Each structure stands twice: as structure tokens, then as C-alpha cells.
Amino acid sequence: MNWDDTLAEIVRDEGGWQEIVYLDPLITSVDFPNGTPTVGPGLLIKPGYEVPFQALTVWTNCRFRLCIESVHRFEAIYKISLDSVRRAVVAGMIWNMGFRGICKFKKMIGALQVEDYDKAADEIIDSNTHRKLAAIRDQAVFDGQKWWPVRTDQWADRMKDGEPL
Questions:
Q1: Most-buried pick from 10, 23, 121, 138 (CB within 10 A)?
Q2: What is the CA radius of gyration of the chain?
Q3: Would you say residue 76 lies in a domain?
Q4: GO molecular function: any one (predicted)?
């Protein structure tokens, strides 16, 4: 066995493999008093750490596939059939909030089930997610920073009119 194989075996055996980000209590700091966010075989995830482009590409592609699968699961569970624009809105919501996050939009889901897209759009705007993003935007504008449109506004517009951006 060569050194590379030995090192890989040591890392796997000692660090384990976690697919969910966890706090490593062995590495604490002022920013992370309860432990540093860690994933995989003990890889730290901290502001300023550089992640290789290839790793980001693989990770993003996996998330794309998971998001697409989640959209299909969402439509199947709630017995909803969406056109491509509204399906893209649901995909954006799942990408940003996760499957569990979008499932909390009970009134929006009910509106989608009866194809009431105006009501579904209203429920996107009348959400904690929208209020948080709008507050961040408002503070940035107040501070003189350049800002981009709030994605929940875009989702609501596309949900309502069925037109792509």
C-alpha cells in the first residue's frame, strides 16, 4: 500500500464521512464557539476557505439533480401539474429553501392545487422569506449599496402571469 492510499484510509477511519454539515467541537473560535462547520471527511467550511472549482461543480450538479427530483416529488405528493414557468418558480424555491421549506407554504400549495396562481403569488409575498429578503434589500438600499431584485418578487410575478423573466 502506498502513502496516498494509507493517508486516504486514515482520513476515512479517523474522520468518518458526514454528508450533513455538522459542528466539529474540537475546533472552536470566537466566530464558532460551539465548533466549526464541517462536512465530508472533516473538511472545514469557514468564510475565506477556498473550495476547488471541480468540487463546486460536482456539488452543484448533485444539487441540481436533487432539486429536479424534488420538484417532481412536490408535484406528485400534492397532485399538482405545473407549466414550465411555474415549475421553474417551484424549483427556485426548493433550491433556496429546500424541499421542507417549500412544504411550509401550505396556502400556496392549496392555491396551486386549484390553479389559483394569483393566490399562490400572494402567498409567496405574504411569507417570512419575502419579509426577510425585503428587509435585507431595504437596509442595503438605505446604506447606499447596489441591490438586485428580491427573488420572492420575481417568483410571485412569474407565478402570477406564467411568463418567464
A1: 121
A2: 20
A3: no
A4: lysozyme activity
DSSP one-letter code for 165: -
Do the Cβ atoms of 95 and 127 come closer than 8 Å? Answer: no
Shared domain check, 157 and 99: yes
How far is it, in rounded angstroms, from Cα 159 to Cα 3? Answer: 55
pTM for this one?
0.76
At 105 the three-state DSSP class reads: coil
Q: Are residues 151 and 93 in the same domain?
A: yes
The burial of 70, by beta-carbon neighbours within 10 Å (0-12 exposed, 13-18 middle, 19 or more buried), is given as buried
Same domain for 89 and 34, yes or no, is no
pLDDT in tens, the chain (165 residues): 565 666 666 666 665 677 888 888 877 888 888 888 888 777 788 888 888 889 888 988 888 999 999 999 999 999 999 999 999 999 999 998 999 999 999 999 999 999 999 999 999 999 999 999 888 888 888 888 877 788 999 999 999 999 987
Enclosing domain of residue 155: 82-161
* The total number of residues written for the chain in this structure: 165
